[in-house]
Amino acid sequence: MPFARRILPVFLLILILAWNAGAESYIMPQLSGGNEQLNGAKPLFPSAFFNSYLEKQDAGDSARPYWAASEAESNALSFIASEESILLNNDILAFYGHPRSRNMGILGRYTKVELNAMLDALAAEYEEAGGRKIRKAFYLIYGTAWPEGEIGIIQESLLREYVEFALEHNILVFIDHQIGKYEPEDSIRLMLPWLKYPNVHLALDPEWRTTKPMVEIGTVSADELNRVQRIMEDYMVENKIPGERLLVIHQFKYGMISSRDKVLSNFTKVRLVHCADGFGNPQVKRSSYASNAQAVNMPVKGFKLFFNFEIPGAGYDYPLLSPREVFQLNPRPYIIMYQ
Hints:
Elements: H1 2-27, H2 31-38, H3 44-47, H4 51-62, H5 71-82, E1 90-97, H6 112-130, E2 133-145, E3 151-153, H7 156-168, E4 172-177, H8 184-191, E5 200-204, E6 220-221, H9 222-238, E7 245-251, E8 257-258, E9 270-276, H10 282-293, E10 301-305, H11 323-327, E11 335-338
Parallel strand pairs: 1-2, 1-11, 2-4, 4-5, 5-7, 6-8, 7-9, 9-10, 10-11
Antiparallel strand pairs: 2-3
C-alpha cells in the first residue's frame, strides 16, 4: 500500500505529460500554419517541430475566445472551398442553341421551363448510367458567325433573362463565342463581364473563326488559346471572382487547333474543357472523340450530340448514343451537350 501511494503521483505525471504531448500534436496542423503556406511564408513543416512554433500557436490560441477561427483562418477556409472544381463530384449536361433560332439547337425550340423539365428527365438517365451527380446547363450561342466573319452578339436583356432563370433553378450557363473574323482574345474579353454571375462559364468555337463560315472550317492556335486563358484568369483575379470557371474549346477536325500539343491546361482559376464536336453515326462519333483523346495535355473532355429536328441540310447523330454509351468513352467526358 505505501508503494502504491508513492507510485500514484508518478503515474499521474506520466498521464499529464502524455496529454500535453497529444495536445501539442493536435495544435501543429491547425490552419494558421496552412495560411502561412498560402501566403508564401515559411511552410508548416519542419517549423511545426520547433518549440518556438508551438509557443506562437499557443499564444495566438489563448488570445481567441472558445478557439474561434482567426480572420486569416476563415479566409483560408473560404479560399480552399471556393477553389474546388465544379467537376470534382459532378458531370454537366447541357442543352445548346440560341433562344431566337429553332434551327441552331434544342435550346431555341422550347421555353426555359420546358427545357428545365427535359434536362431533369435526361439528367436522371445520366445519373443512373454514370453514378455521379449531374449539373444541368444552358449552353447559349453568345456570338453568331455571319457572312464574311461578322459576328452577331446576343441581346443583353435576353441573355440576362436566361442567366437569372438559371440562377433560380440551379442551372449553369455557358456562353459560346463563334469568333468569326475577330481575334480570340477580343472575343473572350467581350464575355468576361458575365462572369460576375456565379453560374456563368465561357466557350469558344474555332470552327467559325473564319471569314467564310459554312464554306471553310476555322482554326485557332495553341498560343491564342493560352493567351485567352491568361486573360480570363487575370480578369477573375483582378475582379476578385472566386472559384474556378470552365472554358470550353470545341474541335472535330485536327487542324482546328494548330500546335495542339502546346495548349496549356494548368491555370489555377480556369479549367479548360476540350469538347469533341461534330455529328455522325456512332462509329464516326467514337472516332472523333478518340482523336481528341490523343490530346492528353487537355485532359478534361467534353462530348456533343446532335438531335434530328428534320431541318433540311442539317446534320445529326443517327442513332444517338445512349447515356451509358457516352460514359463508356475513354476518357470519360465531364460535359455532355445536346444541340
